Amino acid sequence: MNKGLLVVVSAPSGCGKDTVIAKVLDKMKNDAYLSVSMTTRQMREGEADGVNYYFVSVEEFQENIRKGEMLEYTCYGENYYGTPVGPVKKLLNEGKTVFLIIEVEGGENVKRIFPEAVKIFIVPPSLQVLEKRLRSRATDSDEAIKARLLIAETEFRRACEYDYIVENDDLEDAVNDVMAIIRAEQLRINNMQNKLREVMKNA
Ligand code: 5GP
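That is the input. Now the predicted structure with guanosine-5'-monophosphate docked in place:
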């Protein structure tokens, strides 16, 4: 069996990264999983522990760091966010594709530990469209939207650190683009060594 693919997905808020990856996971069925992160931030309405995040205290988070149980972690805003390493390693060993939806700092740290990880950055068609999307959500104040747009601009500047850029204008197109990236990466020679050995076994 070939080892699974680790896929880092980043995008400023409002770019639809969760929706795109949810659709990709739907299409890939049991071949792909989304890593559930750990965070110290407050649970939002509609979220559930163990589904959206593992919601823990600062002490618990720091204990996990100390025990070496985090693949990567970062302080974003005033809260810790991190990826528990155990489930990721297990799924990769089972040959599954594992998605990490994390911010750019975390993406950089993952690549240091897993250089073979594939990094995808999702962008909106333009900053104007992003602003429109953030305003249409009607969940944030004008101040908060301006702050998000400023963060978005700094994150866009780091998009060149990624392997692929996917534009989320039409959702279906964006999903197909991510699927195409995954398929191409699965077929890379490094990821096909076991298959090659199998084919050559009786040569
Ligand atoms: P939110 O609080 O809106 O759920 O997430 C804030 C930011 O933290 C988002 O950019 C999200 O992708 C990022 N994030 C979520 N989980 C992780 C994680 O495990 N590690 C890192 N580095 N960032 C994360």
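Strands lie at 6-10, 32-34, 37-39, 53-55, 70-76, 79-84, 97-101, 118-123, 164-167.
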